[in-house]
Amino acid sequence: MDVGQMQRRLLDYTKSLFMEGVLDGQFLQLQQLQDESNPDFVVEVVSLFFEDSERLLNDLTRALDQPNVDFKTVDSHVHQWKGSSSSIGASRVKNGCIAFRNFCEEQNIEACLRCLQQVKQEYYLVKNKLETLFRMEQQIVAAGGSIPILELSF
Amino acid sequence: MEKRELKQGILKKLMSRFMRGGEDKAVNKDGRSKIRALVVDDSMVNRTIHHKLLQNLGIENQVVGNGKEAVDAHSSGNYFDLILMDMDMPVMNGIEATRRLRAMGVRSLIAGVTTRSLEQEKQEFMEAGLDDYQEKPLTAAKLVSIIHKINQSSSTPR
């Protein structure tokens, strides 16, 4: 595959993530912040998001496993996850967190447990997709090409 | 010139046009104003993004992780033109930090930046002493609209 083909494949892949609602416009904002002075900016921020998410996932699993669930604590963790996922454009994770918070307010433990599974799935999905995206970018750079940025008008 | 460089160049030009005319703001040779900002947020993801957003607009900035650190950052007469204040933070939240800073006589432009969207929550935050309020996530465009207010508010007495 030549560089041009790789670049087109990357753009198509990125486009599909937007079409599927896995990523939203905020991700493009991140890409636009990347420049020569900080060429790994997107990977850095997304890595921070992954670290945050793993921690929050553990904290939430533990919090919901307690005999007397403290919904304020659960809500606080979900709120944080909603914040970081929305900041990087992980749209489905963010939406999952919004639904999750509603059930925290209702103190509905069954629904909360379901939501946790849902958000966990969406998180692993976006993690997988982003790791694939970064791998494709690395391949392009290794072949001497530059990373094309998707220009979408919303 | 690459498209992205062009975009950033345009943003920086827009920025300097907003800033010119503020006599109390030092403007250096290429028209870039030496605005100083403080980012207050407990999320490292957000601190990193907001730091870069500001940097790309030519704004020197510091980042701290909660309201108490924001208050401490003002010790020894330290001053910021702009404070981006998150609401939910441990140790001291954004509402308390804003009240504290205003009580200390800090007249910087304080913009609340939060994911909270209920009117009541916004109201309480604004009443603590905010000049502006933006819903996260922050974008370059939202930031420029906040910064535009720095010049406007510097001419109005508090």
Secondary structure layout plus pairing:
The complex is a heterodimer of chains A (154) and B (158).
Chain A: H1 3-19, H2 25-33, H3 41-64, H4 71-88, H5 91-106, H6 109-142
Helix pairs in contact in A: 1-6, 3-4, 3-6, 4-5, 5-6
Chain B: H1 3-19, E1 36-40, H2 44-56, E2 60-64, H3 67-72, E3 82-85, H4 94-103, E4 109-114, H5 119-127, E5 132-135, H6 140-154
Parallel strand pairs in B: 1-2, 1-3, 3-4, 4-5
Helix pairs in contact in B: 1-6
Number of strands of chain B: 5
String of helices and strands of chain B: HEHEHEHEHEH
Structural class of chain A, please? mainly alpha
Strand content of chain B: 15-25%
Structural class of chain B: alpha/beta
Low-confidence stretches of chain B: 20-30
How much helix, percentage-wise, in residues of chain A?
over 70%
Radius of gyration of chain B: 15 Å
Q: How many strands in all of chain A?
A: 0
**Order of the strands making up the biggest sheet of chain B:** 2-1-3-4-5
What is the approximate shape of chain A?
elongated
Please estimate the helix content of chain B: 40-55%
Q: Describe the largest sheet of chain B.
A: 5 strands, parallel
